[in-house]
Amino acid sequence: LHTIKVLSIMQGVENIQTVSDALSRMIHLSLDARKFISIAEEETYLQDYLDIQQYRYAGKLTYSISIEDTVKECILPKLLIQPIVENALQHGISKEQSVGIVQIRVYEEQGNVHILVRNSGPEFPSELLCGQHYCGGKSKHIGLQNITRRLKLLYGEEAKMRIISGENLLTSVEIIFPKKFDTEERCVYENYDCR
Description:
Blueprint: H1 2-11, H2 14-31, E1 36-38, H3 39-57, E2 61-67, E3 75-77, H4 82-92, E4 100-109, E5 112-119, E6 129-130, E7 133-134, H5 143-155, E8 160-164, E9 171-178, H6 183-189
Parallel strand pairs: 2-4
Antiparallel strand pairs: 1-3, 4-5, 5-9, 6-7, 8-9
């Protein structure tokens, strides 16, 4: 990747330099052995991922990321948000005739972290929803199933995932889990003895 970056600089091809830098940062975080990262690190990963996707969707994608300062140092399971964004692109934006929208918002409410990912495009298949909650149905897609399992294993009943989708609505996927950012809590979640 470094060689590609150097060649792109020599050739004056800025977009290849941008993509190789972003991909390099993404790979470093993906290979990182930690199970939990800060929301600020996840934000950087998402920014890089979406910057690369903007080249792929060539003028068909617009996005925004809004993260409250009060949650930036909170920890979350590594790469929790990216599969939701990937689904938004694959099942929403790719099917749009006009410019598609992806909005990511992370905030705190009543001691919980709320992650909200919204996108334009077709509504969510109703057979995969039980009310507002994802229930999987007959889906062969494992992204949301994996997220549901990870949340249940790590937070039990304290975590929730809701999906709101319908005609003339942005599809919204919301994840709620307890706000954690203490080193001891990180150690407990990662099954390490912190003494």
